[in-house]
Amino acid sequence: MSTFTVTIDLPHPPPVLFRFLAEPRNRPRWQSSLRTVADIDEGEPHPGQHWRDVTKVGIRPQMQLTELVPYRLISETGHWHGVDGLLSLKFLKIQQGTRVTAEGRLIGRGAFALAAAVSGRWAPETIRKDLLRASEVLSQEPGDGVARG
């Protein structure tokens, strides 16, 4: 098992950042490992919503939003063969925008234990870069940057 925590300050208000990051359709725009998302449940983001990430290396984990507390918390799980991932993004309003704290855990079973451990070592820097990329996308677009439909 591998656990990690990343904290980063971004210059966007919590509602804008929360809405953008909670929407699975936006993920390929800011998450560097993704080619696309597929099989997304209909509707606005909600606890229990499922989708499948399609990564650039061909891994296709089944994802689920497990908790959404508007402008404060997004939690999700991901499952792929012998690897389970849990990630929570916590949002705190600060004078300059939002402090986001990402807390995660990767659990590998059997032959996948090593893959989870290695991925866990890369996760903090990858998440930090992805959150910076999300901020760049939001800074370049009018409105809240949220894909709809």
Question: Could you characterize the architecture of this molecule?
Answer:
The radius of gyration is 15 Å and the shape is globular. It has a domain at 2-24 and 65-140: 2-Layer Sandwich (Alpha-D-Glucose-1,6-Bisphosphate, Chain A, domain 4). Helices cover 28% and strands 40% of the residues. The model has no long low-confidence stretch (mean pLDDT 91). The protein has helices spanning 14-22, 27-30, 113-140, and strands at 2-10, 34-38, 50-55, 62-69, 73-80, 83-94, 97-108. Strand 4 (62-69) and strand 5 form a beta hairpin. The protein has a 7-stranded antiparallel sheet with strand order 1-7-6-5-4-3-2. It contains 3 helices and 7 strands, in the order βααββββββα. The protein is of the alpha+beta class.
Could you give the topology of this structure?
Elements: E1 2-10, H1 14-22, H2 27-30, E2 34-38, E3 50-55, E4 62-69, E5 73-80, E6 83-94, E7 97-108, H3 113-140
What distinguishing features does this structure have?
149 residues; alpha+beta; Alpha-D-Glucose-1,6-Bisphosphate, Chain A, domain 4; seven-stranded antiparallel sheet; 3 helices; 28% helix; globular
